[in-house]
Every structure is written in structure tokens, then in C-alpha cells.
Specification:
The protein is an alpha/beta fold. Helices cover 25% and strands 17% of the residues. It has 6 helices and 8 strands. The chain has helices at residues 15-24, 39-48, 78-82, 158-164, 173-176, 182-197; strands at residues 2-6, 29-32, 57-59, 73-76, 94-99, 113-116, 146-150, 168-171. Strands 1-2-3-4-5-6-7-8 form an 8-stranded parallel barrel. It is globular. It comes from Pedobacter riviphilus. Pathway: Cofactor biosynthesis; thiamine diphosphate biosynthesis. Residues 4-172 form the Thiamine phosphate synthase/TenI domain. It holds the Pfam family TMP-TENI. Keywords: Thiamine biosynthesis.
């Protein structure tokens, strides 16, 4: 079961240090999404992250920065994807996107994986409500695009997401709402996801 961490929407002190700690602990994919940051801000974050981890960063904006750093992952937001004027996507990158309706999965076949949500009520965006019922089960269509659950996912929701048949989880609020606990929270989530991947017994 894949585990992805998405950046806190706003810049904050010690962010790069904490992200490096998450990578050192085994984080495989970090989505850099800062809707209000400019290119300089993006560069500052990337340069604050150890170069050995740059291939694990997925850029949501300023995709050209991938050429300046060893970044292998590009994310197309839903609005960006819908406004693309060509069906030719960049090669030699791992591509991800976002959908908010499962019916849209037919439109994202070229992508390696996609976020879907909000699955639960958001921790970080008050009023941003989950869109699927608690007994939801994902019947995966004939697609190679993995679906990653996003929205309102904390340690207590990972088991439920697994039962829903998603390919992985993306964490945001549960990691960054208390940065002092970010590393501890990540490690607990990582243990749950690894246990599912290795078919081990989940400890409460």
C-alpha cells in the first residue's frame, strides 16, 4: 500500500529539515504543492531538500524546475490537465494527476497514478467534506492508473482506505497540523502501509 505525503499549503520554518527527516525515515514520494508560492519559493524548498531525495519530489507547479534539479515526478492538477491543448505528455517522468469523480478515470489513462478525494472530511480545510459513503468499495476499472485516496486521512482511516480497495493513501493534515509530531505520525502510517504490503498482522 503506497504512502504519499503532500506539503503543507503554506510555507513554514523548519519545513525542509522535516521533509529531509521524512525521506531519511523512508518516505518515497513527497508532493510539493504550494498554491501561493512563486518559483523562487519553490526553488528555495527544493534546494533545502537533500539532492539525493530530489527524484522523490513531485512538482505541482513550475514543472520546468525538473530540468534544473534531478526531479523525476510531475503532477498535473485537475484544472491543468483539463486545459492541456495536447495529448502528448512529457516522457521520462512519473506522471500523476487528480480527479474528484471516479467517472473521470477514463480520462487519465496516461498517468501513473491519481489522487481521488476528498474521501473523508478534510483535516486541513474546514468545510471540505468527504464525497463517498463509509461502506464504499472501489471496483477498479480496467486501468493501470493507481488511485490514491486523499482527504481527511489520519492513522485511524488507513485501515478503512485499505478496505475500500484504494492503492494507497496521501497524507497532509495529519502530518502537518502538528509539525512537532510529523516524523512520529509518518512512521506510524508507514508501519501500517508496510504491514499491508507485506501481508503482516496490523498492530493496533
Amino acid at each position: 500500500m503506497e504512502l504519499i505525503v503532500i506539503a503543507k499549503p503554506t510555507l513554514f520554518k523548519e519545513e525542509c529539515h522535516l521533509v529531509n527527516q521524512l525521506f531519511e525515515a523512508g518516505l518515497q514520494v513527497f508532493h510539493l504543492r504550494k498554491d501561493n508560492a512563486d518559483e523562487t519559493g519553490y526553488r528555495k524548498i527544493v534546494e533545502g531538500i537533500s539532492p539525493e531525495y530530489h527524484p522523490r519530489i513531485a512538482l505541482h507547479h513550475f514543472h520546468a524546475l525538473a530540468n534544473d534539479y534531478n526531479i523525476k515526478r510531475i503532477h498535473h492538477t485537475e484544472s491543468f490537465r483539463k486545459n492541456l491543448t495536447t495529448n502528448i505528455l512529457p516522457k521520462n517522468h512519473i506522471l500523476s494527476t487528480s480527479i474528484h469523480q471516479l467517472s473521470a478515470i477514463d480520462d487519465i489513462a496516461p498517468y501513473h497514478y491519481s489522487f481521488f478525494g476528498p474521501v473523508f472530511n478534510s483535516f486541513s480545510k474546514p468545510g471540505y467534506m468527504g464525497v463517498i459513503p463509509p461502506d464504499f468499495h472501489l471496483n477498479k476499472p480496467n486501468s493501470n492508473t493507481k488511485l490514491i485516496a486523499l482527504g481527511g486521512i489520519g492513522l485511524n482511516q488507513i485501515d478503512q482506505v485499505k478496505k475500500m480497495n484504494f492503492d494507497g493513501v496521501a497524507l497532509l493534515g495529519c502530518v502537518w497540523n502538528d509539525p512537532s509530531q510529523a516524523l512520529t505520525t509518518f512512521k506510524k502510517a508507514q508501519a501500517k502501509c508496510l504491514a499491508y504490503t507485506q501481508h503482516l498482522t496490523i498492530q493496533p
